[in-house]
# Entry
Amino acid sequence: MASTAAAVNGAAQSIISVRDVSKDYLLGKTHVHALRGVSLGVDRGEFLSIAGPSGSGKTTLLNLIGCVDTPTSGTVLVDGQDTSRLSERALTDLRLHRIGFIFQSFNLVQVLSVFQNVEFPLLLQGGLSQQERSARVNGLLEAVGIGEYARHRPSELSGGQRQRVAVARALVTRPALVLADEPTANLDSATGQNIIDLMRDMNRKDGTTFVFSTHDPKVMAHASAIIRIADGQIAGREAVHGARAEPAAAPVRS
# Structure
């Protein structure tokens, strides 16, 4: 009975559970092993950094958690749902309503203005009036320091400005989980710190879970824990700010 209760409690606390996941790619005639038997649990409300050299598998892992790719083997559970068992419609709903994703390549819609790019997920969700959408979008654009460019299109912006649009778009739905692939890579130090502060504020006030792939020591300094990844495998987990450290081989929460 006690073990059953612990399992149920663990499931309630965990927003991400990656179980023995591998991901292989075929490049020409070469098999690339991007991830090799990765297991990872992330509790709700964590502010977690995944760190490792280029090519270590960080982006691949985020893509699997974000339901934009599928594992070769193993299981990925997000918000209690086994993503391999979901239909395309259900995966779309999960991404739209529960996950915000900040891509390295921005993935902005070029024919839409900055305002429209950020508003777009809210239109897909429905439920908010035009006034409510405008207030939320404009508030976030001001928060990331790009309010004056609301009517511009992405092609008229610098890389750093487009990054800020991508951040606002990921946060506008107030998702339970935000996945950020090098979110400060194109930003100057001051703007990067402002973005981190904004995300940390959401994490503290709303309990939003953040998982970052990053090389930025400023991001890692704010993390509750740092996951080290190398050659497609978890190399270890380091506690930050007094959080409990977990070894790489720690059992994954069910």
Q: What stands out?
A: The radius of gyration is 18 Å.
